[in-house]
Amino acid sequence: MNHQIDSLAYTNRLRGLPPSHKLSFAIALLILSLVSGAIVQLSIGLWLAVCIVIYAGIPGKLYLRLLSLPLMFLLTSLPALAMGAVELSQIQEIQWDIWQGWGISIGTFYLYVSHTGIYQVSLLLARAFASTSCMYFILLTVPFTEILQILRQLRCPELVTELLLLMYRFIFSLLAIADELWIAQNSRCGYRTWKRGMHSLSILIGQLLQRTLENYRQVSLSLASRGFNGELRVWHSSPYKPSRRYIFEAVFGCTVLTLLNVLFQH
User: Rounded to an integer, what distance in angstroms lies between the CA atom of residue 78 and that of residue 226?
Assistant: First the structure.
């Protein structure tokens, strides 16, 4: 999936727009999603879904799969926020907070579904949906090398940008190595049982570390042989054409969302 994401970042329909415009748009919506209410946050998420799927031409199924990964992880922590517990002697004090009388006595404690907790859960889900959509908009429409180029233009320390570039390169190397090892183990029934699977997984992790260190040594030697002096220079063309339509939609949409935020806060 990671190779597919990287490929879409170079081939999406918004590829011709300046990356600085797309980054500014996503960062502005991210800031707005962090300070606004649930209605505005949901609007941001839906708007970015339209931009990603319709404008950029990203497959809808892929985008839903990407959204499901962090949201499913978030759902595992929601019960702890939605539930409340008090001693049986304090039930009368929290009657207003019990949602539709949903509660159960466990020993000397009373476990219940909280109105306040459900409200917090709704805010958390909406904020996670909006902020995750902003992240995926950048990930799916702006190649990583262009992000690094913008960081260089903003006078970001070269050490940081070079480390980011090397880390990005090694992510794909690690995924490729892990995929090869897993296929080899799976073809030999390495994950037939739970015990055998854990043993195979430990071998995979050990081999992954060993091959990663070897890969790093090879990269270091190749850079030294090419006269590496501490800076990785990457050629960038500038075939970007700003779109008045998209600029107008972005400014108009952000203005409307800001007004909605002020309206609902009052």
Answer: 52
